[in-house]
């Protein structure tokens, strides 16, 4: 079974602040913007909704209002998708063809490639194992993680330091062509973020 990533360039703190903002005007804008997507998700998750999971619209409202959330952990996925809609609305979708689709331990392989270039401040695998900001409940799918601005800056500094090291003592580059391309895509994400004060990366794994 394959997985995918959706990656967004955005003001991480501003996106987090939307959770629990109780901004009804924002909710109405998002409900209109994502009307077709909300309906498709309700159709796709119809069986779970019949078992008590919130509709996509109800989940979006709960995330914006900071609750109430279902106590059933099996329903938490709807809130993860709702937070992704907030990030989609407030950010820009980034190219991610190196990660969509992917299989097995590909994210770990790319992290090894980053590490080979001296980059340890960020991890693409964090998009798989993290969760949305509190108080949004955690769900395994979608996974969610973020690279805040300070970690992005640190990662690029690590990369620059490794490039400046002597060839004999510097980190080895990843050897797999696919991993090289994926690492380059990650570097492109980080460079775009660093060019915008306060911006970072939020990623979702499905």
Distance between the termini: 11 Å
Shape: globular
Number of domains: 1
Q: Uncertain runs with pLDDT below 50, 5 residues or more?
A: none
The biggest beta sheet reads: 4 strands, antiparallel
Strand order of the largest sheet: 2-1-4-3
Q: Could you tell me the strand content as a percent range?
A: 5-15%
Number of helices: 10
Rg calc: 18 Å
Domain DUF7691: 1-206
InterPro entries: DUF7691
Protein name: DUF7691 domain-containing protein
Organism: Streptomyces castrisilvae
Give a verbal description of the structure.
There is one protein chain. The chain is 51% helix and 10% strand. With 206 residues, it is α+β, with helices and mostly antiparallel strands. The chain has one domain. Strands 2-1-4-3 form a four-stranded antiparallel sheet, with helices on both faces. InterPro entries: DUF7691.
SSE order and pairing:
Elements: E1 5-11, H1 12-18, H2 24-33, H3 35-44, H4 46-50, H5 56-65, H6 77-90, E2 92-93, H7 106-116, H8 126-129, E3 143-147, H9 149-164, H10 177-194, E4 199-205
Antiparallel strand pairs: 1-2, 1-4, 3-4
Helix pairs in contact: 2-5, 5-6, 7-10, 9-10
Describe this structure in a few short sentences:
With 206 residues, this protein is an alpha+beta fold.
Properties at a glance:
alpha+beta, 206 residues, globular, 4 strands
């Amino acid at each position: 079974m394959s997985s995918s990533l959706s990656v967004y360039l955005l003001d991480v703190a501003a996106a987090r602040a939307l959770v629990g903002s109780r901004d009804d005007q924002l909710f109405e804008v998002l409900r209109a913007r994502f009307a077709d997507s909300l309906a498709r998700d309700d159709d796709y998750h119809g069986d779970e909704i019949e078992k008590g999971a919130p509709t996509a619209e109800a989940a979006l409202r709960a995330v914006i209002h900071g609750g109430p959330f279902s106590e059933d952990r099996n329903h938490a996925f709807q809130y993860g998708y709702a937070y992704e809609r907030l990030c989609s609305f407030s950010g820009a979708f980034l190219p991610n063809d190196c990660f969509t689709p992917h299989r097995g331990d590909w994210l770990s392989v790319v992290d090894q490639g980053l590490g080979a270039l001296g980059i340890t401040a960020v991890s693409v695998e964090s998009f798989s194992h993290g969760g949305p900001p509190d108080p949004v409940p955690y769900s395994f799918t979608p996974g969610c993680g973020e690279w805040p601005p300070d970690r992005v800056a640190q990662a690029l500094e690590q990369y620059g330091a490794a490039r400046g090291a002597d060839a004999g003592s510097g980190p080895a580059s990843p050897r797999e062509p696919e991993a090289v391309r994926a690492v380059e895509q990650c570097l492109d994400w980080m460079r775009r973020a660093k060019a915008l004060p306060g911006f970072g990366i939020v990623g979702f794994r499905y």
